[in-house]
Amino acid sequence: MTVPDAFTAITLNPIGNSPLPFRGTDGKYHVAYDLQLTNATKVPASLDKIDVVDGVDPTKIIASFSGLALVDPACIFGDCNRLRDLPAGYVDSAAIPPQESRVLFIDFTLDSLDQAPKALLHHLYGTGAASPAFGAPGPIDYLARPVAVSTQAVPVISPPVRGDNWIALNGCCEPGFPHRSSVMSVNGKLNNSQRFAIDWKRTNDQGEFYTGDKTSNESYVDYGTDILAVADATVVSILDGMEANAPGVLPASDPALAAKLTVENVDGNHVVLDLGDGVYAMYAHMISGSVTVKPGDKVTEGQVLGKLGNTGNANASHLHFQLMDGPSLLEADSLPYELKSFDYDGQVAPQKIADADDYLSGMFLQGRLPKSESRTNEMPLNLAIVNFPTAG
Question: In this structure, which topology does domain 10-148 adopt according to CATH?
Protein backbone atom coordinates (compact mmCIF):
# COMPACT_ATOMS: atom_id res chain seq x y z
CA MET A 1 0.00 0.00 0.00
CA THR A 2 1.13 3.56 -0.74
CA VAL A 3 0.74 5.85 2.24
CA PRO A 4 -1.05 9.12 1.36
CA ASP A 5 1.19 12.19 1.46
CA ALA A 6 0.97 13.92 4.81
CA PHE A 7 3.14 16.12 6.99
CA THR A 8 4.46 13.85 9.73
CA ALA A 9 5.87 15.53 12.81
CA ILE A 10 7.02 12.17 14.17
CA THR A 11 8.95 10.08 11.68
CA LEU A 12 9.25 6.32 11.95
CA ASN A 13 12.12 4.04 10.93
CA PRO A 14 12.53 0.30 11.57
CA ILE A 15 15.60 -0.88 13.47
CA GLY A 16 16.82 -4.05 11.82
CA ASN A 17 15.30 -6.39 9.27
CA SER A 18 11.68 -7.10 8.41
CA PRO A 19 9.97 -8.95 11.28
CA LEU A 20 9.86 -12.73 10.93
CA PRO A 21 6.95 -14.52 12.67
CA PHE A 22 7.91 -17.55 14.75
CA ARG A 23 6.04 -20.08 16.87
CA GLY A 24 6.50 -19.82 20.64
CA THR A 25 5.83 -22.19 23.50
CA ASP A 26 2.44 -20.53 24.06
CA GLY A 27 1.29 -21.99 20.73
CA LYS A 28 1.08 -18.57 19.10
CA TYR A 29 3.10 -16.92 16.35
CA HIS A 30 5.08 -13.96 17.61
CA VAL A 31 6.08 -10.84 15.70
CA ALA A 32 8.70 -8.62 17.36
CA TYR A 33 10.49 -5.58 15.97
CA ASP A 34 11.76 -2.14 16.97
CA LEU A 35 11.02 1.34 15.63
CA GLN A 36 12.91 4.61 15.95
CA LEU A 37 10.53 7.54 16.35
CA THR A 38 11.91 11.04 15.75
CA ASN A 39 10.29 14.41 16.37
CA ALA A 40 11.66 16.07 13.24
CA THR A 41 10.36 19.53 14.18
CA LYS A 42 11.06 22.37 16.60
CA VAL A 43 7.70 21.83 18.31
CA PRO A 44 7.16 19.47 21.28
CA ALA A 45 5.42 16.22 20.40
CA SER A 46 3.81 13.38 22.31
CA LEU A 47 2.75 9.87 21.33
CA ASP A 48 -0.65 8.96 22.77
CA LYS A 49 -1.28 5.77 20.83
CA ILE A 50 0.09 3.73 17.96
CA ASP A 51 -1.97 1.15 16.11
CA VAL A 52 -0.27 -1.56 14.06
CA VAL A 53 -2.59 -2.10 11.09
CA ASP A 54 -2.76 -4.33 8.04
CA GLY A 55 -0.76 -2.85 5.17
CA VAL A 56 -3.49 -3.76 2.68
CA ASP A 57 -6.50 -2.88 4.84
CA PRO A 58 -5.55 -0.12 7.32
CA THR A 59 -8.95 -0.38 9.02
CA LYS A 60 -7.86 -3.77 10.37
CA ILE A 61 -6.04 -3.17 13.67
CA ILE A 62 -3.59 -5.95 14.53
CA ALA A 63 -2.16 -4.48 17.74
CA SER A 64 -2.52 -1.24 19.67
CA PHE A 65 -0.26 0.39 22.25
CA SER A 66 -1.19 3.34 24.45
CA GLY A 67 -1.11 4.59 28.03
CA LEU A 68 0.81 2.34 30.42
CA ALA A 69 1.92 0.05 27.58
CA LEU A 70 4.00 2.99 26.36
CA VAL A 71 5.17 4.49 29.67
CA ASP A 72 4.66 3.20 33.20
CA PRO A 73 7.35 4.17 35.74
CA ALA A 74 5.89 1.75 38.30
CA CYS A 75 6.18 -1.30 36.02
CA ILE A 76 9.29 -3.48 35.80
CA PHE A 77 8.10 -6.29 33.51
CA GLY A 78 5.15 -7.19 31.32
CA ASP A 79 3.36 -5.17 28.64
CA CYS A 80 4.73 -1.79 29.69
CA ASN A 81 7.43 0.79 29.01
CA ARG A 82 7.62 0.09 25.30
CA LEU A 83 8.63 3.70 24.59
CA ARG A 84 12.26 4.43 25.54
CA ASP A 85 14.89 7.07 24.98
CA LEU A 86 18.02 6.22 22.98
CA PRO A 87 19.35 3.67 23.06
CA ALA A 88 16.77 2.04 25.36
CA GLY A 89 16.52 3.90 28.68
CA TYR A 90 13.28 4.36 30.59
CA VAL A 91 11.32 7.60 30.25
CA ASP A 92 8.72 9.15 32.55
CA SER A 93 6.36 10.44 29.86
CA ALA A 94 5.36 9.87 26.25
CA ALA A 95 6.68 13.29 25.26
CA ILE A 96 9.21 13.49 22.44
CA PRO A 97 11.05 16.83 22.70
CA PRO A 98 11.89 18.78 19.55
CA GLN A 99 14.52 17.12 17.37
CA GLU A 100 14.87 14.09 19.66
CA SER A 101 14.20 10.40 19.12
CA ARG A 102 12.67 7.49 20.98
CA VAL A 103 12.70 3.71 20.52
CA LEU A 104 9.42 1.79 20.46
CA PHE A 105 9.31 -1.97 21.01
CA ILE A 106 6.50 -3.67 19.07
CA ASP A 107 5.35 -7.20 19.91
CA PHE A 108 2.13 -8.98 19.02
CA THR A 109 0.89 -12.51 18.45
CA LEU A 110 -1.12 -14.32 15.79
CA ASP A 111 -3.13 -17.50 16.26
CA SER A 112 -1.85 -18.91 12.98
CA LEU A 113 0.74 -18.07 10.37
CA ASP A 114 -2.08 -17.59 7.86
CA GLN A 115 -3.04 -14.44 9.76
CA ALA A 116 0.30 -12.77 9.07
CA PRO A 117 -0.16 -9.75 6.78
CA LYS A 118 2.24 -9.09 3.93
CA ALA A 119 3.05 -5.68 5.36
CA LEU A 120 2.27 -3.51 8.37
CA LEU A 121 1.42 0.17 8.66
CA HIS A 122 1.52 2.29 11.78
CA HIS A 123 -1.26 4.71 12.73
CA LEU A 124 0.09 7.40 15.07
CA TYR A 125 -2.05 9.50 17.40
CA GLY A 126 -0.79 12.29 19.64
CA THR A 127 0.26 15.90 19.51
CA GLY A 128 2.92 17.74 17.56
CA ALA A 129 3.49 20.15 14.72
CA ALA A 130 0.50 19.95 12.42
CA SER A 131 2.15 21.48 9.34
CA PRO A 132 5.54 22.47 7.91
CA ALA A 133 4.93 25.94 9.37
CA PHE A 134 5.24 24.29 12.80
CA GLY A 135 3.38 26.66 15.15
CA ALA A 136 1.77 25.45 18.37
CA PRO A 137 1.38 21.70 18.96
CA GLY A 138 -1.87 20.25 17.73
CA PRO A 139 -3.44 16.83 17.26
CA ILE A 140 -1.64 14.41 14.95
CA ASP A 141 -3.35 11.45 13.32
CA TYR A 142 -1.76 9.75 10.33
CA LEU A 143 -0.50 6.52 8.80
CA ALA A 144 3.24 6.08 8.62
CA ARG A 145 5.88 3.85 7.14
CA PRO A 146 5.00 0.42 5.75
CA VAL A 147 7.06 -2.43 7.19
CA ALA A 148 7.19 -5.67 5.23
CA VAL A 149 6.63 -8.93 7.09
CA SER A 150 9.27 -11.49 6.18
CA THR A 151 8.20 -14.73 4.55
CA GLN A 152 11.59 -16.40 5.00
CA ALA A 153 11.72 -19.75 6.74
CA VAL A 154 12.47 -19.55 10.45
CA PRO A 155 15.77 -21.33 11.21
CA VAL A 156 15.17 -24.68 12.91
CA ILE A 157 18.07 -25.88 15.03
CA SER A 158 19.08 -28.43 17.65
CA PRO A 159 19.46 -27.40 21.31
CA PRO A 160 22.76 -25.78 22.36
CA VAL A 161 22.85 -27.78 25.64
CA ARG A 162 21.55 -31.10 27.03
CA GLY A 163 19.69 -32.13 30.17
CA ASP A 164 16.73 -31.06 32.29
CA ASN A 165 15.67 -27.94 34.19
CA TRP A 166 16.92 -25.28 31.78
CA ILE A 167 15.27 -21.87 32.11
CA ALA A 168 15.07 -19.42 29.21
CA LEU A 169 16.16 -16.30 31.08
CA ASN A 170 15.76 -12.95 29.32
CA GLY A 171 13.98 -14.54 26.36
CA CYS A 172 11.48 -13.02 24.00
CA CYS A 173 9.27 -11.01 24.07
CA GLU A 174 8.77 -8.72 27.08
CA PRO A 175 10.54 -5.32 26.88
CA GLY A 176 11.11 -5.35 30.65
CA PHE A 177 13.80 -8.02 30.25
CA PRO A 178 17.25 -7.07 28.92
CA HIS A 179 17.61 -8.77 25.55
CA ARG A 180 14.34 -7.58 24.07
CA SER A 181 15.37 -3.99 24.69
CA SER A 182 19.10 -4.26 23.94
CA VAL A 183 19.28 -1.61 21.23
CA MET A 184 22.84 -0.37 20.76
CA SER A 185 24.61 2.14 18.53
CA VAL A 186 27.27 0.22 16.59
CA ASN A 187 29.12 1.10 13.39
CA GLY A 188 27.03 4.21 12.79
CA LYS A 189 23.57 2.70 13.19
CA LEU A 190 21.15 1.37 15.77
CA ASN A 191 21.13 -2.42 16.12
CA ASN A 192 19.56 -5.09 18.28
CA SER A 193 21.58 -8.27 17.90
CA GLN A 194 20.00 -9.72 21.08
CA ARG A 195 16.28 -9.28 20.39
CA PHE A 196 15.72 -13.06 20.39
CA ALA A 197 18.70 -14.10 22.53
CA ILE A 198 18.25 -16.41 25.51
CA ASP A 199 20.38 -16.77 28.63
CA TRP A 200 20.14 -20.50 29.26
CA LYS A 201 20.57 -21.24 32.96
CA ARG A 202 20.00 -24.53 34.75
CA THR A 203 18.64 -25.51 38.15
CA ASN A 204 18.78 -28.76 40.05
CA ASP A 205 15.62 -30.83 40.54
CA GLN A 206 14.71 -28.71 43.56
CA GLY A 207 14.76 -25.55 41.45
CA GLU A 208 17.98 -24.11 42.87
CA PHE A 209 20.57 -22.47 40.64
CA TYR A 210 23.34 -23.22 43.14
CA THR A 211 24.07 -25.15 46.31
CA GLY A 212 26.80 -24.31 48.79
CA ASP A 213 28.98 -21.22 48.47
CA LYS A 214 27.13 -18.72 46.27
CA THR A 215 30.33 -16.77 45.63
CA SER A 216 31.97 -19.76 43.91
CA ASN A 217 31.26 -20.43 40.23
CA GLU A 218 31.66 -24.16 40.86
CA SER A 219 28.61 -24.09 43.16
CA TYR A 220 26.30 -23.34 40.23
CA VAL A 221 24.46 -26.27 38.66
CA ASP A 222 25.22 -25.33 35.06
CA TYR A 223 28.87 -24.30 35.43
CA GLY A 224 31.05 -26.40 33.14
CA THR A 225 28.16 -27.83 31.10
CA ASP A 226 29.07 -28.86 27.54
CA ILE A 227 27.99 -26.33 24.90
CA LEU A 228 26.94 -27.87 21.58
CA ALA A 229 26.84 -26.94 17.91
CA VAL A 230 23.18 -26.46 16.95
CA ALA A 231 23.82 -27.48 13.33
CA ASP A 232 26.57 -28.46 10.93
CA ALA A 233 28.53 -25.24 10.53
CA THR A 234 31.82 -23.44 10.00
CA VAL A 235 33.58 -21.62 12.83
CA VAL A 236 33.87 -17.91 12.02
CA SER A 237 35.54 -16.53 15.14
CA ILE A 238 36.37 -17.32 18.74
CA LEU A 239 37.63 -15.61 21.86
CA ASP A 240 39.28 -17.53 24.67
CA GLY A 241 41.46 -16.68 27.66
CA MET A 242 39.21 -14.33 29.65
CA GLU A 243 39.17 -15.25 33.32
CA ALA A 244 35.96 -15.95 35.22
CA ASN A 245 33.97 -13.28 37.01
CA ALA A 246 32.94 -13.54 40.64
CA PRO A 247 29.25 -14.51 40.87
CA GLY A 248 26.86 -11.74 41.85
CA VAL A 249 28.84 -8.88 40.30
CA LEU A 250 27.92 -7.56 36.84
CA PRO A 251 31.06 -5.98 35.37
CA ALA A 252 29.11 -3.24 33.58
CA SER A 253 27.81 -2.07 36.98
CA ASP A 254 31.27 -1.86 38.56
CA PRO A 255 33.32 1.12 37.30
CA ALA A 256 36.66 -0.67 37.63
CA LEU A 257 35.43 -3.77 35.80
CA ALA A 258 33.39 -1.83 33.25
CA ALA A 259 36.53 0.00 32.13
CA LYS A 260 37.91 -3.33 30.92
CA LEU A 261 34.91 -4.19 28.74
CA THR A 262 35.21 -3.67 24.99
CA VAL A 263 33.08 -4.52 21.97
CA GLU A 264 35.41 -7.48 21.44
CA ASN A 265 35.20 -8.99 24.93
CA VAL A 266 31.79 -7.94 26.29
CA ASP A 267 30.46 -11.43 25.51
CA GLY A 268 33.40 -13.12 27.20
CA ASN A 269 34.93 -16.26 25.75
CA HIS A 270 32.74 -17.06 22.78
CA VAL A 271 32.27 -18.89 19.50
CA VAL A 272 30.52 -17.69 16.34
CA LEU A 273 29.34 -20.26 13.78
CA ASP A 274 28.23 -19.77 10.18
CA LEU A 275 25.20 -22.04 9.71
CA GLY A 276 24.78 -21.06 6.06
CA ASP A 277 22.06 -19.10 4.26
CA GLY A 278 23.02 -15.90 6.08
CA VAL A 279 22.45 -17.35 9.56
CA TYR A 280 25.06 -17.18 12.31
CA ALA A 281 25.02 -18.60 15.85
CA MET A 282 26.79 -17.01 18.80
CA TYR A 283 27.64 -18.68 22.13
CA ALA A 284 28.91 -16.42 24.92
CA HIS A 285 30.50 -16.46 28.42
CA MET A 286 32.43 -19.76 28.14
CA ILE A 287 35.02 -20.97 30.65
CA SER A 288 38.57 -19.84 29.90
CA GLY A 289 40.53 -22.51 28.05
CA SER A 290 37.46 -24.59 27.26
CA VAL A 291 36.91 -23.54 23.63
CA THR A 292 37.59 -26.60 21.47
CA VAL A 293 37.48 -25.06 17.98
CA LYS A 294 39.28 -22.45 15.89
CA PRO A 295 38.24 -20.25 12.96
CA GLY A 296 37.76 -22.24 9.77
CA ASP A 297 36.94 -25.51 11.53
CA LYS A 298 33.97 -27.51 10.29
CA VAL A 299 31.72 -28.69 13.11
CA THR A 300 28.85 -31.15 13.17
CA GLU A 301 25.51 -30.88 14.94
CA GLY A 302 25.92 -31.80 18.61
CA GLN A 303 29.70 -31.35 18.65
CA VAL A 304 31.10 -29.85 21.88
CA LEU A 305 32.34 -26.28 21.36
CA GLY A 306 33.33 -25.42 24.92
CA LYS A 307 32.00 -25.24 28.46
CA LEU A 308 29.42 -22.95 30.02
CA GLY A 309 30.99 -20.28 32.21
CA ASN A 310 30.83 -16.77 33.63
CA THR A 311 33.06 -14.46 31.58
CA GLY A 312 32.60 -11.09 29.91
CA ASN A 313 29.65 -8.98 31.03
CA ALA A 314 27.97 -11.66 33.14
CA ASN A 315 27.21 -11.91 36.86
CA ALA A 316 26.49 -15.63 36.94
CA SER A 317 27.18 -18.73 34.89
CA HIS A 318 24.90 -19.12 31.87
CA LEU A 319 24.96 -19.67 28.13
CA HIS A 320 24.02 -16.58 26.18
CA PHE A 321 22.88 -17.95 22.82
CA GLN A 322 21.57 -16.09 19.80
CA LEU A 323 21.11 -16.39 16.06
CA MET A 324 21.87 -13.37 13.88
CA ASP A 325 22.18 -12.33 10.26
CA GLY A 326 25.92 -11.62 10.27
CA PRO A 327 29.15 -12.52 12.07
CA SER A 328 29.37 -9.35 14.18
CA LEU A 329 28.35 -9.91 17.81
CA LEU A 330 26.86 -6.43 18.09
CA GLU A 331 26.14 -5.07 14.61
CA ALA A 332 24.20 -8.05 13.25
CA ASP A 333 20.42 -8.15 13.52
CA SER A 334 18.88 -10.78 15.76
CA LEU A 335 17.02 -13.70 14.19
CA PRO A 336 14.28 -15.79 15.80
CA TYR A 337 14.61 -19.55 15.68
CA GLU A 338 12.74 -22.70 16.57
CA LEU A 339 14.14 -25.78 18.29
CA LYS A 340 13.64 -29.15 16.61
CA SER A 341 12.46 -30.91 19.75
CA PHE A 342 12.36 -30.49 23.51
CA ASP A 343 10.06 -31.02 26.48
CA TYR A 344 8.22 -27.97 27.77
CA ASP A 345 7.94 -28.12 31.56
CA GLY A 346 6.19 -24.88 32.53
CA GLN A 347 7.11 -21.30 33.37
CA VAL A 348 9.01 -19.41 36.04
CA ALA A 349 6.97 -16.47 37.35
CA PRO A 350 8.57 -13.14 36.34
CA GLN A 351 8.09 -11.83 39.87
CA LYS A 352 10.35 -14.63 41.17
CA ILE A 353 13.18 -13.31 39.02
CA ALA A 354 12.42 -9.69 39.87
CA ASP A 355 12.54 -10.47 43.60
CA ALA A 356 15.71 -12.58 43.46
CA ASP A 357 19.08 -11.35 44.69
CA ASP A 358 22.14 -10.99 42.47
CA TYR A 359 22.99 -14.66 43.01
CA LEU A 360 19.51 -15.91 42.06
CA SER A 361 19.11 -17.51 45.46
CA GLY A 362 16.01 -19.58 46.14
CA MET A 363 13.86 -22.10 44.30
CA PHE A 364 12.36 -21.33 40.89
CA LEU A 365 10.41 -24.34 39.62
CA GLN A 366 7.07 -23.71 41.34
CA GLY A 367 5.53 -23.21 37.88
CA ARG A 368 6.55 -26.65 36.64
CA LEU A 369 3.80 -28.64 34.91
CA PRO A 370 2.50 -31.89 36.44
CA LYS A 371 3.77 -33.60 33.29
CA SER A 372 6.14 -32.16 30.71
CA GLU A 373 4.91 -31.71 27.14
CA SER A 374 6.81 -32.83 24.05
CA ARG A 375 7.29 -29.91 21.65
CA THR A 376 8.70 -29.55 18.15
CA ASN A 377 9.58 -26.50 16.08
CA GLU A 378 8.95 -23.89 18.75
CA MET A 379 11.02 -21.17 20.40
CA PRO A 380 10.99 -21.22 24.20
CA LEU A 381 9.61 -17.89 25.40
CA ASN A 382 10.89 -15.87 28.32
CA LEU A 383 11.25 -17.94 31.51
CA ALA A 384 10.11 -21.20 29.93
CA ILE A 385 11.30 -24.32 31.77
CA VAL A 386 12.76 -26.73 29.23
CA ASN A 387 14.16 -30.26 29.23
CA PHE A 388 16.52 -31.22 26.41
CA PRO A 389 17.52 -34.70 25.19
CA THR A 390 20.54 -36.00 27.09
CA ALA A 391 22.24 -37.39 23.98
CA GLY A 392 21.97 -37.30 20.21
Answer: Immunoglobulin-like (2.60.40)
